Amino acid sequence: MIESRRLPASGIILFLAAAAAAAAQPRTEPPSSGLRLGLRVDYFSQRVGWDNPGGESTSDLNSVLVAAALQFRLSRDSSASILAGYGSSDFGGLMFRALPFSIDYQAGGVGGLTLGGEFDIALATSSRIRVSAQGEVMAFLGSTRKWDIPGLAVAGSLEGKPSWVRARVGPVLAFGRASRLRPYLFPFFHYIWGSFEMSESIESLSGKETKDLRGKSLFGVAGGLDIPLSPHAKIRAEAGVYPSGDGASYSATVATMFSF
Amino acid sequence: MTPHKKHASWPVILVTALCAAGFVLGGQRAFQSKAPGRWAAPRTLRSVDDRLVFRARAGRYAPRQVMVKFKPSLREPLLGATSRAYGLEKLDRIPVLEIYKFRVPESLTVEEMVQALKRNPDVEYAEPNYIAHIAATPNDAYFKSQYALLNTGQQIGSSGPSGTAGHDIKATSAWDETKGSADVTIAIVDTGVDLLHPDLKAKIKSAGRDFVNDDNDATDDNGHGTMVAGVAAADTNNDAGIAGVAWNCRILPVKVIDASGNGYYDQIVAGIRWAVDNGASVINMSIGGEDAADIMRDAVRYAHDKGVVVSAAAGNNGAAVLYPAAYDAYVLAVAATDYSDVRPTWSNAGPQVDVAAPGVRIACPVPTWFWAANGGSSSDVPYAFADGTSMSSPHVAGLAALIAGLKPDLSVDSVMDVIRYSADDVNSSAKRGKDDDIGYGRINMAKALVPIKIAAR
């Protein structure tokens, strides 16, 4: 499912690039207000664990999120944002063993609403380096998806509804001046938790099972680049890695922000 | 307690055939119940003598191998460079399908390499080189004759018919998911059980209770209960005898039928109550009577309300479903099918029939004294072929026990529904959907137990 969503994701990235190019026309006037509007695309693959009879099982939670961001300037160098958009999360590999008929979930992504918030508070600033504290919370509220249960003597159906919350916080070390390419390093503490509720209904037979998910890594590091296109526009590109006991997970973000 | 405690004559058993060559040469012996209101007697009984080979199980996938399909856009030499970047050594390529087999470097596990490859956008899919195998196959000597569990179209016994491949209850696939729990007990409310039978003694929870003779020794003096117990939960994978449906579940003998094959309802009711209160999760009742009785209904309702699944034989006289099988809300009524999924005409029918299970030429244990007491010798192996819904019901009881062990939180009604809805409608060409002959169909253990894969549309 994630694969099938690459095309629209690529389209969004192209749109962002075109928008950024348009915004990159020479301008000299400073921002006229403290509001900024932006669009961001996030992809992440996160190792998650969940309880299963016989012990904990793990699988990869893969998500693609597209969200609009509204940023408020809190002070000259600090800001807060709210995010809202749409995303798809693939919980491939979940097993529901407590339902009357056991289910192995391999049905790909489930779409849903994405809501979140972000803050960036400057702690120290010089001409060469900026140190800030950054935090982010993203919530995915999946829509209910239905499947038919094949092969039984009577008709039956399943309903699945996922949700998760992802939070990360840490210091950001940005190098260089804000008016130029600014690379940054973001070591962070992060956590993801959520659930997938699956209901089974087959004539008089029904059951419900909820899988609680927990992230398998607590710390990660991201590296990124802020690319100012004009006084009113910038693009951010970021890649992150999340080491865990059984490998590493990854994330990538592309965002653009326009000020008014 | 002795194994021959109540060893009795067989007034209601009609020996219809006795092979002069003797039991081990495949001779046929048969007996029948002549009247209702007692154990749902096997219609025929024949000796068994085939043996089979043990098949060992291998691992899940080949060590240090991954199978990879790249996206069509990736061609040589990029393909080779990509695989080398992962440290993969090409072992083989399946032409046309363009699937590559690689050796994984020792520094990584197969799982790690698969995960790494899956993250590569040029990889369409990557997975271990899985190993297929014949599903869990026990090494019991007469398993080959148990077409009910795995029907390969084999000849059933040395002189028996051949079945139709695939017309079975899919036991071997289901056993990959579960072989049962020792915490789950199947009460055999019947003529008792041979407590010293080599294929049963390790599975018997206690000497049980005898409501015919009012003591705590449910030794079988008839043979019927021993056969039924073996079908449900014989000692399995022990290089001998037959395989039971529920490998690891325990047997609780409850004797409510006397040596002649008759039992009063009050004894049966007391037996059900005792089984429920002594740890049974499932009760098999390969017995039945033509008369409805409130005391019988209350007994099976008591079991149901206490979370105990009751499986009962529909009966073998081609008439209406017997009681207690006919108590639809509380009991799974089980009809019979044969080695080609055809319902024998003698299998009782009615709206109360929930499911069917194989009941023709079923390999089962008989008491160790059985053949010597019935024209054979004490050296004859204590196994036989039997017919009847008596043999069908313990297949269902075994399946109920496996479900109860795998999903202990399921209600008794849910367990019953899983068994019903997972059945194969094997007579759908004539009677589509639930019908009076075989209910929802012949049980399918794999559908009931193996997880259903919900894949992307």
Protein architecture, described:
The complex is a heterodimer of chains A (260) and B (457). Chain A has 260 residues and is mainly beta. Chain A has one helix and 14 strands. The two termini of chain A are 37 Å apart. Residues 1-32 of chain A have low confidence and may be disordered. With 457 residues, chain B is α/β, with parallel strands linked by helices. In chain B, 21% of the residues lie in helices and 19% in strands. Chain B has helices at residues 78-85, 110-118, 171-175, 224-233, 265-277, 294-305, 370-373, 389-406, 412-421, 445-449, and strands at residues 28-29, 38-39, 45-46, 61-70, 89-94, 99-103, 123-130, 185-190, 209-210, 250-255, 282-285, 287-288, 309-313, 331-337, 353-358, 362-365, 383-386, 452-455. A seven-stranded parallel sheet of chain B has the order 9-10-8-11-13-14-15, with helices on both faces. In chain B, strands 1-3-17-16 form a four-stranded antiparallel sheet. In chain B, strand 9 (209-210), helix 4 (224-233) and strand 10 (250-255) form a beta-alpha-beta unit. In chain B, helix 4 (224-233) runs parallel beside helix 8 (389-406) and helix 5 packs parallel to helix 6. The longest helix of chain B is centred in the last third of the chain and has 18 residues, at 389-406. Chain B starts with 27 loop residues before the first strand and ends with a strand. In chain B, 54% of the residues are buried. Mean pLDDT of chain B is 85; it is low at 1-39 and 49-59. Chain A binds chain B through residues 1, 6, 45, 60, 95-98, 100-108, 147, 149-154, 156, 158, 202-205, 207, 246-247, 250, and chain B through 112, 115-116, 119, 121, 177, 406-407, 409-410, 413-414, 417-418, 420-425, 433-434, 440-441, 447-457.
